[in-house]
Specification:
- The complex is a heterodimer of chains A (357) and B (249).
- Chain A is an alpha+beta fold and 357 residues long.
- Chain A folds into two domains: 221 residues, P-loop containing nucleotide triphosphate hydrolases (Rossmann fold, 3-Layer(aba) Sandwich); 118 residues, OB fold (Dihydrolipoamide Acetyltransferase, E2P) (Beta Barrel).
- In chain A, 22% of the residues lie in helices and 34% in strands.
- Chain A is built from nine helices and 22 strands.
- In chain A, the strands form five sheets. A six-stranded mixed sheet of chain A has the order 7-8-9-3-10-11, sandwiched between helices. In chain A, strands 2-1-4-5-6 form a five-stranded antiparallel sheet, with helices on one face.
- In chain A, helix 5 packs parallel to helix 6.
- The longest helix of chain A is centred in the middle third of the chain and has 18 residues.
- The mean pLDDT of chain A is 85.
- Chain B has eleven helices and no strands.
- The termini of chain B are far apart.
- Classes of the chains: A alpha+beta (357), B mainly alpha (249).
């Protein structure tokens, strides 16, 4: 995808929005806190909001150019927005919701076979005759995703599609999203305030705060450090470790991270072995010596790479083969004599680890 | 002048009901005529108003413009004006020498005043604010983001309105129609000025009740017409409830 976005908008109340970015990635994440302007960005791309000034181009096609007074109306933009709450039409059954966009725009580029494929990938067949009020939140999200896919869009706009779901459903729908992105090969712009989701799905991340872009790049670079500003998102800075391997042992599953063992919590019954685990920096302890007499079982030797003080806390980045962030008080940092290139042991409680499929 | 004499004479004519029924007996032909006329006038008023009320209600719910308050005021005016004042203004506009009335009669041969059409017009105008308010409330209750979702999926503005907004507003449309229908059944002041009180042509139930009450032996007939009026109102409410329930799905 070749995507160019550059828009300026002033809201009543004085909030100024000025966001610009270019992306060639298949999945671009817009990451930032609530009120940052992420949803506004999607609405501008979809043509639901007009900026005071701006340019939007998708694969060489101009959707908006205020200098040239060019404006493509929403139904002709070939983009489909999947809102956070799915926003299904309550008076239409699931089947009619699913086919809403297909009947208007999608049938020009898609066929009945594509409808069957979407229905199968998203497991929608049992829901077709029901009304939205009779299906669950996760099911509504799947229908909304299917509706967007079948609208013939060339770009999907996903506005925190997992935001309204509980953890169990998030994992399940995240799996569907990955299948959709992989099988349909549609470019997508994915809005999230979850670092785990951004890292999982996106090849390019744009960090938006208070209506401005404050960083952009591949996920590790854009998200790999705490921000020197007040917010850190709903989850705070999140540690995400890739598991090279998961083996079953008598004491429970064990993950292998850069050659080191990590005792994992029991996996949900019937679940596939996870690829990632996530945990909060607040769940990490640091020790300068051996710590056998402690209940936490995961001890990983590493080297301090960075210390960043943010809002009265000190974020310490430790390289254990992958980077792990710990949150300490300034006093703890002083008492332990922590500094860059110092050796430390990272201690993580097994039950603070959460699987990310 | 024939129109005024028709209004006054018909109101007090001793020959309004030349064939009197006994007290407490079945409804007369004239009473059925008044009932049928009331139903025709109310139905015509509602059917004629809906195509205007729905788009106006949608505009009032969605339009962000200073002109919106002016439109709102104009629509609400018949609600606060005395019905006879409304009737007087309609008479000025639609009378045979009025700008609209003269045009209709000369171009289409259509006469509005002192016909059932005039009664329907009067009923439509006084019921219009009630209809618009109920429908507007329904549109206010619809999340505008649903319409935006439809447009984002390839629907134009009109398509989004017809496929999403209007079906969701249906209970409000039904409610507005019934309110206007009931109001039309009871309309008196504007009707008597615009349509007169001509037996069999413009004498609706309220006018018939007024006529009978002003007659020395008209109370039993008036009472029967009152009962008919109540039964019609109850029937309208029952139908409305059923339709609203069905519209809610």
């Amino acid at each position: 995808m070749d995507f160019h976005f550059d828009c300026r908008l002033r809201f009543t109340g004085g909030f100024c929005y000025d966001v610009a970015f270019d992306s060639a990635a298949r999945v671009t994440a817009l990451f930032g806190p609530s009120g940052a302007g992420k949803t506004t960005t999607l609405e501008l791309i979809a043509g639901l909001v007009r900026p005071a000034q701006g340019q939007i181009r998708l694969s060489g096609r101009v959707l908006l150019d205020t200098d040239e007074r060019l404006w493509v109306e929403p139904r002709r933009r070939d983009v489909a927005l999947v809102p956070q709450d799915g926003r299904l039409f309550p008076h239409l059954r699931v089947r009619d919701n699913l086919l809403f966009g297909f009947r208007r725009r999608g049938k020009r580029v898609l066929t009945g076979a594509d409808v069957d494929r979407a229905t199968t990938v998203l497991e929608l067949a049992p829901l077709m005759d029901r009304f939205p009020r009779a299906i669950s939140g996760g099911e509504r999200q799947r229908v909304a995703l299917g509706r967007a896919l079948l609208s013939g869009a060339k770009l999907l706009l996903l506005d925190e599609p997992l935001g309204a779901l509980d953890q169990r459903l998030r994992i399940r729908i995240l799996g569907f999203l990955e299948r959709v992105v992989h099988e349909w090969r549609l470019p997508a712009i994915y809005v999230t305030h979850s670092q785990a989701e951004a890292r999982r799905l996106a090849e390019f991340v744009v960090v938006v705060e208070r209506g401005r872009v404050v960083g952009a790049g591949e996920p590790h670079a854009a998200l790999g450090a705490p921000r020197p500003l007040d917010w850190t998102g709903d989850e705070g800075l999140v540690n995400l470790l890739r598991l090279d391997q998961v083996v079953s042992e008598p004491d429970g599953p064990v993950g292998v991270v850069s050659g080191r063992r990590l005792l994992l919590p029991p996996a949900p019954a019937g679940a596939a072995p996870p690829d990632f685990v996530e945990f909060s920096p607040g769940a990490v302890l640091l020790s300068r010596g051996a710590s056998a007499d402690i209940s936490a079982r995961n001890h990983l030797a590493g080297v301090v790479r960075r210390l960043v003080e943010v809002g009265g806390r000190v974020f310490v980045a430790v390289d254990v083969g992958q980077l792990i962030w710990a949150t300490l008080t300034p006093q703890a940092v002083r008492d332990l004599g922590l500094a860059a290139n110092e050796s430390v042991t990272v201690i993580i409680k097994t039950h603070s680890l959460t699987f990310v499929p | 002048m024939p129109q005024r004499s028709q209004r006054c004479a018909a109101a007090t004519s001793a020959s309004a009901y030349p064939q009197r029924q006994e007290k407490g007996r079945s409804v007369t032909a004239e009473e059925w005529s008044a009932t049928r006329l009331s139903l025709l006038v109310a139905a015509a008023a509602v059917c004629g108003s809906l195509p205007f009320a729905i788009p106006i209600a949608f505009l009032l719910a969605r339009w962000r413009s200073p002109v919106r308050s002016l439109l709102e005021t104009l629509v609400s005016l018949p609600l606060v004006l005395p019905p006879v004042v409304t009737g007087y203004l309609l008479l000025l506009a639609f009378g045979r020498r009025g700008p609209i009335g003269a045009f209709l009669e000369q171009t289409f041969g259509l006469r509005v005043t002192f016909t059932w059409l005039g009664a329907a017009l009067a009923a439509a105008v006084v019921g219009f604010p009630l209809m618009v308010r109920a429908i507007r409330l329904a549109f206010d209750g619809i999340d505008p983001r649903l319409e935006a979702a439809a447009r984002g999926l390839g629907a134009g503005r009109w398509d989004a309105f017809v496929s999403v907004s209007l079906p969701l507003a249906l209970p409000g449309v039904v409610s507005g129609a019934v309110l206007a229908f009931a109001r039309s059944l009871g309309e008196f002041g504007a009707t008597i000025l615009v349509a007169g009180n001509i037996p069999g042509q413009t004498r609706t139930i309220p006018l018939a009740i007024f006529t009978e009450v002003n007659r020395p032996d008209g109370m039993p007939t008036a009472a029967r017409l009152v009962v008919l009026s109540i039964l019609l109102a109850l029937a309208a409410l029952l139908v409305s409830e059923r339709l609203e329930r069905r519209a809610h799905g």
